[in-house]
TrEMBL record:
<dbReference type="InterPro" id="IPR004873">
    <property type="entry name" value="BURP_dom"/>
</dbReference>
<protein>
    <recommendedName>
        <fullName>BURP domain-containing protein</fullName>
    </recommendedName>
</protein>
<dbReference type="InterPro" id="IPR044816">
    <property type="entry name" value="BURP"/>
</dbReference>
<feature type="domain" description="BURP">
    <location>
        <begin position="11"/>
        <end position="228"/>
    </location>
</feature>
<dbReference type="Pfam" id="PF03181">
    <property type="entry name" value="BURP"/>
</dbReference>
Length: 233
């Protein structure tokens, strides 16, 4: 565990999800102004978005082939072109409009939805520290869920995915050793049988695909969509 990449320290299992439990967690802390700009759909659609177009894109954005930005673009395009696993739908949305189209396509056009994210109530500069669960974790009703992650790219790319298999969603109040207070969103994926053996969670938890569920905390720049609860008389 001491030799793990700290950025992978977001995984846990349901048995850890109890008041008073302490675990090391990585929460990155970025200045919102450092995020890439979201483009309007019309502009985003006019720019190619594929790995085979990478040489053109590097020229378009004036990046040298061996620059860190070029490597980041290549990594994002590679990630976006990996086929979904069984029971998963995914998209790399190049605009906010296409992200919302994916959400509507997953939940149904008429379904209202809620937007969830991890929030810092108090934070230090420390990105990796021990956190203690301060209150009983709060289960959320989420028959379906779409999670979106901002990818490294010259403009905003949202990697969004949804799994048909069972997920359990929680709100978790955390207190950090350095005084951080976090209202975190966490999910437990109950079926990992189709996940790649290379998934970081298996190394962190010391388990095999399909042998256990996997839970993780969402970073503050992730967006989680769930259908809004409906109330009946």
């Amino acid at each position: 565990m001491n030799h793990m990449d700290p950025s992978t320290m977001v995984f846990f299992t349901l048995k850890d999800l109890k008041i008073g439990e302490t675990m090391p967690i990585y929460f990155r802390k970025r200045d919102p102004s450092a995020y890439p700009q979201a483009l309007p759909r019309e502009e985003a659609d006019s720019i190619p978005f594929s790995l085979k177009q990478l040489p053109y894109l590097l020229q378009f954005f004036s990046f040298s082939d061996d620059s860190p930005l070029a490597k980041a673009m290549e990594g994002t395009l590679n990630h976006c072109e990996v086929p979904p696993i069984e029971g998963e739908t995914k998209i790399c949305a190049t605009s906010l409009e296409s992200m919302l189209d994916f959400v509507h396509g997953t939940f149904g056009l008429e379904t209202k939805f809620q937007v969830l994210s991890t929030k810092f109530l108090a934070k230090s500069a420390t990105i990796f520290q021990n956190y203690t669960i301060l209150q009983v974790p709060k289960p959320m009703v989420a028959p379906k869920m779409v999670a979106c992650h901002i990818m490294p790219y010259p403009y905003a790319i949202f990697y969004c995915h949804s799994q048909m298999t069972e997920n359990k969603l929680f709100g978790v109040s955390l207190g950090g050793d350095n005084g951080d207070r976090v209202e975190a969103v966490a999910v437990c994926h109950m079926d990992t049988s189709h996940w790649s053996r290379d998934h970081a969670s298996f190394r962190v938890l010391g388990i095999e695909p399909g042998s256990s569920h996997v839970c993780h905390f969402f970073q503050a720049d992730n967006i989680v969509y769930i259908p809004a609860p409906t109330y009946h008389d």
